[in-house]
Every structure is written in C-alpha cells, then in structure tokens.
Amino acid sequence: MSTTLKTPTGNHPAAANAAAASFASLTAKLDYLTLADLELVRSAYRFADQAHLGQIRDSGEPYITHPIAVAAQCADWKLDAQALMAALLHDALEDCSVTKPELVERFGPAVAELVDGLTKLEKLHFNTREENQAESFRKMLLAMARDMRVILIKLADRTHNMRTLADVPREKWARIASETLEVYAPIAHRLGLNQAYRELQNLAFCHLRPWRFAVLSKAVAKARRRRRDLIQKVQREVESAFAASGMEVRISGREKTLYSIYKKMTEKHLSFAQVTDIYGFRVLAPNVINCYTALGILHQLYKPVPGRFKDHIAIGKVNGYQSLHTTLVGPSGISVEFQVRTDAMNVVAESGVAAHWLYKVNSPAQAAVSDRHGSKWMQSLLDIQNETRDAAEFWDHVKVDLFPDAVYVFTPKSQIMALPRGATVVDFAYSIHSNVGDRTQGAKINGEQVPLRTELKNGDVIEIVTASDATPNPNWLSFVRTARARSKIRQHLKTMALADSQSLGEKMLTQALRAEGIDKTLAETARNKQVWDKLLRFSGNKSQSELLTDIGLGKRIASIVAKRLRALLTDSGEKLDAVLLTRERFAMNQSGAQGGVMLDGSENASVSYARCCRPIPGDSIVGYLGRGEGLIVHVEDCAVARKLKHKDSERFIGVEWSDEPLRTFESEVVVTVTNGKGVLARVAAALAAAEVDIARVDIPDEAVQEAIELRFLIAVRDGAQLDAALRNLRRTPSVLKAERSSNSATVN
Fold it and tell me: Which strands make up the sheet holding 462-466, listed edge to edge?
C-alpha cells in the first residue's frame, strides 16, 4: 500500500510509455514462470493499470509504477504467479473502485484473499489512529499466518515506499520511518529476510535522523578510505591461506549498516572510533564439514577474540539462519568479523522464508526444509488471535516476539528449544504446552530448584514441576517475555475472573431478591425461563450468566435488577413472602446497604481488598461495587470509602466476615525504632514469634538519623493476630512505637 498521495490527472503519453517500460523490465525477471502463468500476471497488470488510470505519485510518475516495483521485488524472491498478481493489484481495493467479489471473479479466490490481507480497514471506524493501525496490523498478520506470501508482498511494498519517501511531504517522514523501524524491519529480521531488513533499517534511519545519518555516512566513508589498504591486505592473506590448503571458497566483504553502527554507539555509549567491527568478511564453503575446516584455517591465520565465537550451524537461529561467526584480531590489531556458511545457508540468511520460493525453482527438497522457517511463529499468531480479540492487545503481544535474539535451552530429554533473550522458566513451560504452563508449580535448572522468574541462559536444562491444582499467578505477567505465555496467562485469568464474578453476582442477586420478598427464583423452570428472557431483553444481556457476571463486576446494580425481576415474577403469578420481605428489609435498614455478601477470602478475582486501608477479619467493613472492577472491600471508617459513599452510595453493599476465613490477609504496620545494629533482625524475630509472615519491608534511606520508621507489609489471619504482633513489637528493645498504618489517600 502506497504512502504517497494520488491525484487525478490527464493523459500523459510519456508517463504511459514509462509505465510500459517498467512492466517490460518486470517480465524480464519472470523467466521462471510458465507461459500460462506469465499471461495471468500480464492480465493482472492490465487490470491494475486500468484501475489506477489517471493517478500519479508524489514523484510525478504514473501510480502503476509502484505496483510494478512491488511485483519486481517479489519476482526477485521467485514468488509464484498468484503472489505477483496480488502485488500488482494490492492497492486496487483500497484506492480504486474495485470490490473483492470482482477480484474473485476475475482472478480467483486465492489472489483476492492475498489482496484483502494487504488492504487497510478504511471502511471501519476507530476511536484513534493508533487503534486503526493496530487493527490493520492484526488483519495483515493473521492473513500472513494463513499465507506467508502476504507479508512478503507487504515488505516489498514497504521497501519501495521507503525508497521513494523523499518525494513525500517531509512532515510524514517521522511517522512512516518510525513505523518501518519499529514494525516492518523487525518482521523482516524475524523471518530471516536479511537484505530487506538491512535496507529498511538504513532507509528509515536516513529519514528519521537525516543529520545523524549524513554525519555517520561521512565518517564511514572516511574510515573506508583510511582502512582500504588494511582490508585489502586481510582479504589477500585469507585468500592465500585457503589457496594453500587447497580449499575452494568464495570470499566477499561486508559492512555494518549505518543504523546498526548508530544503535551500537547509543546503546553502549561508544564513539565512532570505538566501534571496531564495522567491516567483516563472508566465507562461502562447499559443505558443512568445509565450514568447520575453514574456521580452523582462519583461527590459525589470526588469533580469535575470546567469547566472540558463535556456532549457528549446530544451533540455528529461530528464523532458520545458520552460520559460523568468529571475530579475529587482524593486522594492526583491528577486529575483523568472519561469517562462514554454505551457499544454501547463504540463501536462507539473505532471503529467509522467501528462500522457500527460491528453492522451489531449483531444489524442491530444499524448499520443503525452508518452508518450516517462520511457520512456528505464524501458528503462534493464530493461537494468540483465538485468545485475544482486542486489536491493540494482539499487537502488543506480537511486538514482544519481533526481535529474535534467542537463548537455546534443553528439555530433560535433550530436545533443544529457542526462546527470546530474557525468557523465564514460565515462558519455557508455556512453549512446551499451555497445560504445562497453567499447572506450573516449580522448576529446576540444571538439577537445581530455582524461582519461576529466573531468566534462562544458553545451554540450560530445564525441568518443569507441575501440580494438578496449580493455576497461573497474575504476578507472572510482570516477568514473562514471550507473547504466547502472556496471552495464555491473561486468557486463563480472564476466564477465572468471569467465573468468580458470575458466582458473586448470583449471591448478590439472590440476596437482593430476598429483600424483595422472593426466594429460590433462580431454579430452572419453564415459567422462570420466560421471566428471564424478558429480563434479559430489558437488560440487554445475551444470557443469564452474562447478566450475573455484570452484577458481580459492578456493571449492574443487584437491587435494580431484583426490582425488575420481582415485577416480572409478580406478573407471572409469583407470590411475595411477606415474612421474608419484612425481615430482609429490616436487616437492610439496619445495615444501610443493599444486599449482603459473606467473605472468607476464597473469592479470588471477583473481590479485592482495598490497599488504602487493607481490611482484615475483625474490622467493620463495607463493599463498593466498582464499575467493571468487581467488589472492593474497605474498612468502614476508611477515608476513601467515606468519600465514595458520599458521591456513589447506591454502589455500596453489605459485607461481613465469615466465622472461619480460609486465608491470610495483608496489613501494613509502621514500626519506629532507634537506629542501630541488629534492629531489623530483632523486629523480624518479634513478628515471627507472633507467627506472622512478612511480605515486604520498606526501609528509608536515613542512616544518619537516630530514629527511623520501618514499614512492614505482613500477612495475618485476623485482627487478634495483628494485635498480638503489635504487642510483641512494643516489647522489643529499640522499638519506640508500633502501630497499624493509617489510611492513605488513594483508592486501590
């Protein structure tokens, strides 16, 4: 899709001739197609040429030159006729009055689907440009997951747009270049399209930071001239060494991209003079054994730099890349990087997933191997889509996996697995299977027990310990690295939260109905079903479970729903229980709140305990139904709760503690102590004596003061245990004061 403006214009014979010449240059690249396929491509060109008739680019060229350039790039990758036709037609749906059914009729469903996967969602309305962009990317990536040719055409499209970005108004440069650098270049890298990746990076850098690009270009050109003799000397010596060994290899020079130099300088705070690996060499050997032999010859010629050797042949990168990397100390002490690989590896290194089509022309067997590259990531996109319907969240997940720096680890059965750098034990568990991730309880790395947030290192052997009753922890989201793990955890937590909210909503509605004099109305009977159908039409919910979930989440008020349900039940012949009505109304008047819920700590995601006051069993409490947040429990005299009650009293419900809470609750205590050695240990011992668990300690940076405040977040069963802990603290030497923290001024 072009980023340039298009305006109607008259007939321009010269422009038409230029377009025809461009198509002639395209057909020169299509010698790998059959005559029948070539005619199909020609028919797509004629259709696109007619559709774009009268449109010109910002450069003044006929618009058709853009689709032809995109198709030419696809031809370099040896894509098939359908892909080339889609490349020529890729802007027809978006910019011309062409419909998808028309494309299906003229060129078949396969071509129409490819074009549709590349088309922006112009006809849908979104709240923001970012949301529109996220939805467009989601559609493109899902189409790409179904057919790899979509992203290849898209990358060819973006490459030509970047080549001609100088013709676009300058105010658009930053947005388009940033998008290219943050999205398209990483996708090209993720799929092993090295040439496209390098070109997109440099073009984006040129337009995003033109001054820095120019300065760096001059510096590299100057360094190139200064070191030309040195580089030529290295090449001569390397060629002589291989000739002496009798090994036939091809040697070529390579240079770091300007953007990669700039990135290294900024990330590592280096000057240009300190970047020593600007230049390097690529050695193409006949086979894998020769690659390792070539490595030995190079290491005999120059000394290797310790820690700078990587074997990506034995352990290929996740995008299919294979090569030996080594950095050697050459003449005059300069560092020179060498990449050693076979011709087949070089095709994959430069063309990535596109190598499938390159091989298809010459080597069907290699095509089958190449076709696997990227397929695992493609499948993960579909998995994430099945769990995440929100476009922005989907794109957030995908961006996490766009950078393929990987660590390589092993299962206990020695199966090798590649994960992004920074991945944790939990990421590894989810990469095996979502059920393993969901039931993860512990893990061992190289036979030793480790925390679940432990980052993985190359060569680690990981064993996951599972339990049937284990469930994902929300805290995992703070450290997992892969999109798959993040989406699976969120999906599980969302499912749990909805189930908990539905259960809470049912309790609240039952209690609210009792206050209306109706009991046991949720039973499945024919008459109740008719009543529920009417209620759902009134509320706008699709099902009874959805309505109960909305009540549990605070999106609907139980008492209002109960009044409507009572009216419907009364109309259907249900009689009110006068005794029940009187008793419940009296109880409500006493409590001053709607309904009532018993709390024992087992409510999971449907009930949260406010951090502003941290209620514990024994406190007088109130429940606030936050909109979409479920039930939030506050201490009755909490300042925040009083403020909420003043402006939103109808959202409060009666809550009580169960006689036997099922878990501990967090409370914050403030301990003022005399500063000195061993004070913290004595305070911790006093809390331990009260059988209190310490969740967190905040120590102020006030070492020079005589008295300081220590803040402890502790877990207690109830108020009695908290009082016992405070008594222990007050009897401890060096403790001046110990008390429960007072309310803060923020809502949880």
Answer: 448-450, 440-445, 462-466
d(CA 20, CA 16): 6
Is beta strand 652-657 parallel, antiparallel or unpaired with respect to 594-599? parallel
> Which residues does residue 656 pair with via DSSP β-bridges, in sequence order?
598
- Give 678-698 pLDDT, tens digit per residue: 888 889 999 988 888 888 888
C-alpha–C-alpha distance, residues 466 and 414, integer Å: 19
How large a percentage of the chain has pLDDT more than 70?
77
Query: Where in the sequence numbering do the catalytic residues fall?
Result: 94-95
Average model confidence (pLDDT) across the chain: 78
CA dist 301 and 281 (Å) reads 14
Q: Is 538's pLDDT higher than 80? A: no
Say what the pLDDT of residue 511 is.
74
Residues 340-372 pLDDT 10s: 999 888 877 776 665 555 545 454 444 444 445
In order of 194, 218, 258, 317, 632, the CA distances from 264 in angstroms are 18, 17, 10, 21, 48
8 A C-beta contact, residue 425 and residue 463: no
Q: Which residues of 58-77 are buried (b: 16+ CB within 10 A; e: fewer)?
A: beebbbbbbbbbbbbbbbeb
Which domains can be identified in the chain, with CATH numbers?
A: 7-208 (1.10.3210.10), 227-369 (3.30.460.10), 385-472+479-490 (3.10.20.30), 497-657 (no CATH), 665-740 (3.30.70.260)
User: What value does the mean pLDDT take over residues 66-77?
Assistant: 89
Burial (0-12, 13-18, 19+ Cβ within 10 Å), 443: buried
The predicted model gives 280-292 an average pLDDT of: 90
Residue 457 CA to residue 267 CA, distance in Å, equals: 22
Q: Rounded to an integer, what distance in angstroms lies between the CA atom of residue 170 and that of residue 290?
A: 50
Q: Predicted confidence band at 716 (pLDDT cuts at 50, 70, 90)?
A: very high
Question: What's the length of the chain?
Answer: 748
Instruction: Give the residue-averaged pLDDT of 707-717.
Output: 89
0.90 cut: is pTM over it?
no
Predicted confidence band at 397 (pLDDT cuts at 50, 70, 90)? low
Tokens of 413: 């059965």
Residues 6+ apart with CB under 8 A from 228: none
Q: Give the residue ranges of DSSP H helices in 619-699.
A: 639-647, 679-689
Interatomic CA distance for residues 668 and 738, integer angstroms: 11
Helix extents (H) in 209-305: 210-226, 228-245, 258-268, 288-301
Whole-angstrom distance, CA of residue 466 vs CA of residue 473 = 14
Q: Smallest Cα–Cα separation from 68: which of 22, 15, 112?
A: 22
For 677: left if phi > 0, alpha if psi spans -120 to 50, otherwise beta; the answer is beta
**Alpha-carbon span 90 to 483, nearest angstrom:** 29
- CB-based contact 630:653 (threshold 8 Å): no
Residue type, 62: P
- Contact call for residues 72 and 29 (beta carbons, < 8 A): yes
Which residue is it, tokens 């301990």?
671
C-alpha distances out from residue 671 to 17, 47, 447, 736, Å: 86, 80, 41, 8
How do strand 416-420 and strand 440-445 relate by DSSP bridges? unpaired
Question: What DSSP element (H or E) covers 607?
Answer: strand 607-609
* CB 419 within 8 Å of CB 410: no
C-alpha distances in Å from residue 629, one per residue of 389, 612, 665: 20, 16, 20
Distance CA 709, CA 465 (A): 41
Phi, psi of 737 (to 5 degrees): -160, 145
Cβ pair 426, 440 in contact under 8 A: yes
